[in-house]
Amino acid sequence: MIFALFLLFFSPYGRQELIPSQVIEVPAHDWGQFEIGLNQRPALVDANFEVESGSSRVRMALLERGDFERLRNGDPHGMLAATDSGRGGHLRYQVRRPGRYVIVLDNRAGGNQPASVRVSVWVDFSPPRVPGVTEISPTRRLIVVLISCGVFFSIVTFSLRRIMRAVKRQPSI
Questions:
Q1: Contact criterion met (CB below 8 Å) for 119 and 49
Q2: Are 35 and 100 a contacting pair, CB within 8 Å?
């Protein structure tokens, strides 16, 4: 494992397999985890999982190290990315800040069954090819349109009132 991290830190740009395809046993009502150190530069984390036997309600999540500590203590925590619960899934997330991250395999919703999960994790240090966000969400788009229309009609109403007052005050010829 140390050798793999050594290669990860001193390798050139490109996609590297951080965790080769391996089977992890995740106990019932518990989770398994992998720590990823991305201390040198941002990277794209690409991970797959497939349940080979046991529970069919496993979920994969990517957390910052501090959020993982809160999860372990039972406190409210955040997540950077997560898959839906199921027998398999794919997680892909562009990590923008160097730091320590944890991939969690969550089997707490799986009932009383442990799970044998095949996991693969790649890290790609290549610069992003496209921007992360190219358009705003439909909800924000609607809010922007409604606010713009409200401001427009307020200005038109205010201007028409001023014009009507000016027309009424003007003496007739």
A1: yes
A2: yes
Q: Where are the domains of the chain?
A: 2-124, 135-173
How far, in Å, CA of 166 to CA of 155, rounded? 17
On whether the CB atoms of residues 134 and 36 are closer than 8 A, the answer is: no
pLDDT tens-digit series, residues 133-147: 678 889 999 999 999
Question: CA-CA distance, 1 to 7, in Å (whole number)?
Answer: 10
What does the pLDDT look like over 20-58, one tens digit per residue?
Answer: 778 888 888 887 888 887 777 778 888 888 988 888 888
User: Residue 36 in contact with residue 91, Cβ under 8 Å?
Assistant: no
What long-range pairs does 4-7 form, CB within 8 A, spacing at least 24?
A: 5/37
Q: Which residue has the tokens 């693969």?
A: 120
Domain at 2-124, CATH class: mainly beta
Instruction: Report the C-alpha gap between 131 and 47 in whole angstroms.
Output: 21
Q: Say how many C-beta atoms besides its own lie within 10 A of residue 86's C-beta.
A: 14
pLDDT of residue 4: 43
CA atoms within 13 A on the CB side of 104: 25
